[in-house]
Description:
By secondary structure, the protein is of the alpha+beta class. The chain has helices spanning 2-29, 40-69, 116-134, 213-223, 228-231, 246-252; strands at 34-35, 38-39, 92-95, 108-111, 146-147, 160-161, 185-190, 236-243, 255-258, 262-264, 280-285, 294-301, 315-322.
Amino acid sequence: xxxxxxxxxxxxxxxxxxxxxxxxxxxxxxxxxxxxxxxxxxxxxxxxxxxxxxxxxxxxxxxxxxxxxxxxxxxxxxxxxxxxxxxxxxxxxxxxxxxxxxxxxxxxxxxxxxxxxxxxxxxxxxxxxxxxxxxxxxxxxxxxxxxxxxxxxxxxxxxxxxxxxxxxxxxxxxxxxxxxxxxxxxxxxxxxxxxxxxxxxxxxxxxxxxxxxxxxxxxxxxxxxxxxxxxxxxxxxxxxxxxxxxxxxxxxxxxxxxxxxxxxxxxxxxxxxxxxxxxxxxxxxxxxxxxxxxxxxxxxxxxxxxxxxxxxxxxxxxxxxxx
Length: 323
């Protein structure tokens, strides 16, 4: 009996409190009433003030942003070349790159030559990277401004030069980029710097002392050619790959470059035109020594590209190991 009285008293207490609260809220919403102890007119004035304040603040912010956008060109950066954060020294990139999930700092290309599953990742990575080159219609502009350039056929303003991946020799998807033959291909690309113009090596007497002899001979032969169109090929940003140490050079084997040993000058300067794709050089390592970790450095050669191995300026480093 006592428990029933306590429960009844408890429920009655809750009901009375809810009834009082509802009356308080209802009374606060009545004209001239108060909401949680604050006069309704005061609440209304505060809400109106903050509505006007934030409306004016938003309008002012949008106006300043609009004025700021008028000073920007969507295709031309405000600071160019030497004034930009990127600077005047383009970097050299390579594909395929190791998965960042394994080690973001890794630059090792390792696989088992007789195991399809082992080299599948590298083949798929290259295929994915080259997909946009095979389907230029996917790029902005849908390929409408693509021009078949050559050294004596330069693009007009607004046009971009076509990059034909069919010229990459044996380094194609159909050939699995030669990974199944334990003679893999690596794709090199020069990083973009808006407005950067390369300064070419056109005089054999100006070639650097540390330039590979084979590349020196190639440049000299072009410079001495009697064909004026052939001499235009001197307008090339050359590349070379080699082992970093004498032992690496011994194990790296012969190397072939497709479609040529460098980036043609008609791809420069980069001006952020719709549909622009960076030129490519496929490096085919024909017979690297299996079971040996080979340190490889690829360099890019132009008068205004500075080389510094410690900072990887003007070069790129990776390791290759085939079991």
